[in-house]
């Protein structure tokens, strides 16, 4: 974000260690002014005046854990950060990276509703890394130049709720079903692949930073009035009946989300996968809502 030309002020917040990170990053010769804020008492100051807030806070997975296993630790972290956003920058676009995204985004919505400042067009769960992974793996498999590859990824951001639509990938390439199944599995397990490789030392940080910055850049371009900016994101949606949050391609505009796309035609395998993940998504959403309403 320091090298993003749309950024004038970059406020870095964490409970500890931020002054060092801020000093380090501030030496990059780009126009954004950098300030570091450490500790809860400085959170309000960090958020004041922000147009966009990116929230990657929370504990990472260890091998063997699902993203949902992080709920206990991360739900309250997200709740408290969102409360501060609702108080200090209620009109900001919010990008939620903290896992489990399938639940933390509904938590954020409930908290903001409770504060009377919820705008469904300003709240987005970041699923860009799933798209980035699907593009990488598809390009590797097909030999297509990776810069030309596009793969829609819909659903949510955990396990089987991550639904890459290789039938709609471009450039189109016909592949046997077992190859598509393996590509789908690898995309769904992308985060786990990194968690295992890091062997207890965390989850994806570098590729996630790339994907998070890509998505944030799209939000900023939309806020600045660039037409036709579109990215996948997990947002309040009625694209799938019975699910209040779902990821499809969204249009980003001066007020945040300016439109939500349908997911197009699925083949029978993809339709089955979508049907199969609906109960998990539904229960992750309900779990987040119940937590935010103080019921768990
Ligand atoms: C990812 O997709 O890499 C992140 O959600 C982190 C994780 O736990 O997998």
From TrEMBL:
NAD(+) binds at residues 14, 74, 97-99, 208. Substrate binds at residues 61, 67, 99, 133. Keywords: NAD, Oxidoreductase, Tricarboxylic acid cycle. GO terms for biological process: malate metabolic process; tricarboxylic acid cycle. It catalyses: (S)-malate + NAD(+) = oxaloacetate + NADH + H(+). Residues 3-125 form the Lactate/malate dehydrogenase N-terminal domain. GO terms for molecular function: L-malate dehydrogenase (NAD+) activity. Pfam families: Ldh_1_C, Ldh_1_N. InterPro entries: L-lactate/malate_DH, Lactate/malate_DH_C, Lactate/malate_DH_N, Lactate_DH/Glyco_Ohase_4_C, Malate_DH_AS, Malate_DH_type1, NAD(P)-bd_dom_sf. Its EC number is 1.1.1.37. Belongs to the LDH/MDH superfamily. MDH type 1 family. This is Malate dehydrogenase. It comes from Symbiochloris irregularis. The lineage of its organism: Eukaryota, Viridiplantae, Chlorophyta, core chlorophytes, Trebouxiophyceae.
């Amino acid at each position: 974000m320091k090298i993003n030309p749309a950024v004038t002020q970059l406020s870095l917040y964490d409970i500890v260690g931020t002054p060092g990170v801020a000093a380090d990053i501030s030496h990059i010769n780009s126009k954004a002014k950098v300030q570091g804020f450490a500790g809860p008492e400085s959170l309000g100051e960090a958020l004041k005046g922000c147009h966009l807030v990116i929230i990657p806070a929370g504990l990472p997975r260890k091998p063997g854990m699902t993203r949902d296993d992080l709920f206990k630790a991360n739900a309250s972290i997200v709740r408290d950060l969102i409360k501060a956003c609702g108080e200090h920058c209620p009109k900001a676009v919010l990008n939620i990276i903290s896992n489990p995204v399938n639940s933390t985004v509904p938590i954020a919505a409930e908290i903001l509703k409770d504060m009377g400042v919820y705008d469904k067009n300003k709240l987005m769960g970041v699923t860009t890394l799933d798209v980035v992974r699907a593009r990488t793996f598809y390009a590797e498999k097909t030999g297509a130049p990776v810069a030309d590859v596009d793969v829609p990824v819909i659903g949510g951001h955990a396990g089987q709720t991550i639904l890459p639509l290789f039938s709609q990938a471009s450039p189109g390439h016909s592949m046997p079903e077992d190859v598509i199944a393996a590509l789908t599995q690898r995309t769904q397990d992308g985060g786990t692949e990194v968690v295992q490789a890091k062997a207890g030392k965390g989850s994806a940080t570098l590729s996630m930073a790339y994907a998070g910055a890509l998505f944030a850049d799209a939000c900023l371009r939309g806020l600045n009035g660039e037409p036709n900016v579109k990215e996948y994101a997990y947002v309040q949606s009625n694209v799938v009946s019975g699910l209040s949050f779902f990821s499809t391609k969204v249009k980003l505009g001066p007020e945040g989300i300016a439109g939500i796309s349908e997911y197009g035609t699925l083949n029978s395998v993809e339709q089955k996968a979508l049907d199969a993940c609906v109960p998990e998504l539904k229960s992750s959403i309900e779990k987040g809502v119940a937590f935010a309403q103080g019921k768990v």
